[in-house]
Design goal:
The protein is α/β, with parallel strands linked by helices. It has 9 helices and 8 strands.
Length: 293
């Protein structure tokens, strides 16, 4: 972010009250952007805004409630937005939850990590287009590697629920979203990319037990600031103007995943254009069904 001036730009960061969301919002605001912290816990968001405020221009931060598992909350947020939107960082998420469902019957991780952000991003499409050269950052995870989309059963109705697999599929979905959104919107000046922030010890892991951690690979854990670095690269680095539909990690475009490097790279199933188009249509259908219900 050295030398990057975001004065006059407006940004939204979901999940900006903890973890890497805080550092993403801090970096954007410090660079001069007007940042909306879209959070479930408004009090936590206000504490974050107060903390960030010391290093950001006066009036550059605001806190707005948003529950990504609640389509009414998303619709209310979108309806209240006015004017252009230059940067949207889809940072919030849930991980490894017990089997839980939204009122629509959707599996919670898929509903929050993908469908919630899908509705949030497609809703203000005009605001993104009005910005001229808008950027959307969709946070994924290395967990996607073992979890191609099972389109016939995205909500785990016919198969036994596996919370780690469900998380991985939701993160495959966020990567595929970047592929198809960028294809559809590049002509509007909107670029969409996926980012793997790496392993960061945050509230995202609150559902993991000691036994779960013992079974995980030997990650090299990052600080929240390091975790936010790739998001910021995609959100603000001038040299990435017009670059979209890609998957990044550790501050660079990721290589193709290979078995010999299990904690790095992007799997083919997460960048497949046909799968991305199929997921987009499925997402539209699910949201339409929910509105009719």
């Amino acid at each position: 972010m050295a030398g990057v001036d975001l004065s006059g730009q407006r940004a939204i960061v979901t999940g900006a009250s903890s973890g890497i969301g805080v550092e993403t919002a801090r970096a954007l605001a410090t660079a001069g952007a007007e940042v909306t912290l879209a959070v479930r816990d408004v009090r936590a968001g206000e504490r974050t805004a107060q903390d960030i405020g010391d290093g950001a221009p006066s009036g550059s931060l605001r806190v707005v409630p948003l529950d990504l598992s609640d389509q009414l909350s998303i619709a209310t947020f979108v309806a209240a937005w006015a004017g252009p939107l230059h940067i949207l960082v889809n940072n919030a998420g849930v991980s490894a939850t017990p089997e839980m469902r939204t009122p629509e019957g959707w599996e919670l991780q898929f509903a929050t990590n993908h469908l919630g952000h899908f509705a949030l991003t497609t809703g203000p499409h005009r605001a993104l287009a009005a910005a001229g050269r808008a950027r959307v950052v969709s946070l994924s995870s290395i967990a996607h590697v073992q979890a191609p989309m099972v389109f016939e059963d995205v909500n785990f109705r016919a198969r036994p629920y596996d919370r780690m697999l469900a998380y991985g599929e939701s993160k495959t979905a966020t990567a595929l979203f970047a592929v198809e959104a960028n294809r559809r919107w590049a002509d509007d000046g909107i670029t969409v990319n996926a980012a793997n922030p790496g392993a960061v010890a945050t509230n995202l892991g609150r559902h993991l037990t000691e036994e779960d951690y013992a079974q995980l690979p030997a990650f090299d854990f990052k600080t929240p600031e390091q975790g936010a670095a790739t998001s910021m690269l995609l959100a603000a680095w001038p040299q990435l103007d017009g670059v979209g539909g890609r998957y990044f990690e550790d501050g660079n475009q990721a290589a193709r995943h290979r078995p010999e490097t299990p904690l790095r790279g992007v799997a083919d199933h997460a960048t497949d254009p046909a799968a991305a188009a199929r997921l987009w249509q499925l997402s539209l259908d699910l949201l339409a069904d929910a509105r009719r219900a």
